[in-house]
What does this fold into?
Amino acid sequence: MALTGSQLRIWMVPENDGPAALPNATVRVRLSAELGDHQQLAEGCARAGLREVVCETGPLPLHGRGRHIGMALELREGPSEVVVRVDTWWNGGATDRNHANNEHVVLALDTGDAYAF
It folds into this structure.
């Protein structure tokens, strides 16, 4: 992800470590800054509040990756930093033994630099 002025670019590749393949899941992106009024979201994504976007992953094969999800979110103002929280919002009731990979928090600074997690 990268923050430049009032634009936050996010690129996600959901992964499934098992124990089974999933036909679909949903990730939630929560921001510490408010989204602008108009967004052009990636396919399968929807605004879920003033600071939230949710995206379906599509099929997640066992020990595999889902489709790439890219977004260029317009923020209401141009903050100097944004805290971005990405978590599993819905997974069809599946459980895995590694809950540490279900939630990620990244601080993106307004430098245009890319941050990875």
